[in-house]
Automatic annotation (TrEMBL):
Superkingdom of origin organism: Eukaryota
Gene3D superfamilies membership: Cupredoxins - blue copper proteins (2.60.40.420)
Pfam families on file: Cu_bind_like (PF02298)
Keywords: Signal
Domain (Phytocyanin): residue spans on this chain: 24-123
SUPFAM superfamilies according to UniProt: Cupredoxins (SSF49503)
Low complexity bias locations: 123-143
InterPro entries: Cupredoxin (IPR008972), Phytocyanin-like (IPR039391), Phytocyanin_dom (IPR003245)
Organism lineage: Eukaryota, Viridiplantae, Streptophyta, Embryophyta, Tracheophyta
Record region (Disordered): 123-156
The protein's name: Phytocyanin domain-containing protein
UniProt-listed PANTHER family: BLUE COPPER PROTEIN (PTHR33021), OS12G0150500 PROTEIN (PTHR33021:SF499)
Amino acid sequence: MAVQRALLVCLAAAAFVFQLALAVDHTVGAPAGSWDTTTDLQTWVGSQNFLVGDRLIFMYTSNHDVLEVTAANYASCSTGSPIATHTGGNTVIGLSAPGKRYFICGTAGHCQQGMKIEVDTTAAAGTPPSGSSPGVPSAESPGSSPPPPPPASSNGVSLKTCLAVGLGLMLMMLLAL
Ligand SMILES: [Cu+2]
């Protein structure tokens, strides 16, 4: 039915917008420090909650760089054959998928002095359910919303309904935080 489809589109749009609004920029070391040898980056990284869609921002002076490396090279502070090399003082890394990523500074000795972070990105709470997300109690998910009441007057009602459902969804997500 057209109204139901419109409702689903509304829900999807609301969820998408809300997730965008929730995306967080994590400036490495901020607010007290930055990507340097004097900041306690392990404490900083431990204080962060990285979700898919967030961004990692490295701000640094020209004596540093950012190497994305493997877990093994992270552990041993090996700067050889990095996955990616970033320079320029302002590096933005999009955390587009769940999982662990490893970053070290390529300047000699800096990784050993603590310029290394392990970033563990987890799926955002609002990620569309693809069947099974263990441990997440979701009484209502966009896919399992009850059928809407029969349309009284199909056109005028649908926008209002959309707004109401969108607001309700947002409230629900806010409460879930
Ligand atoms: Cu450095």
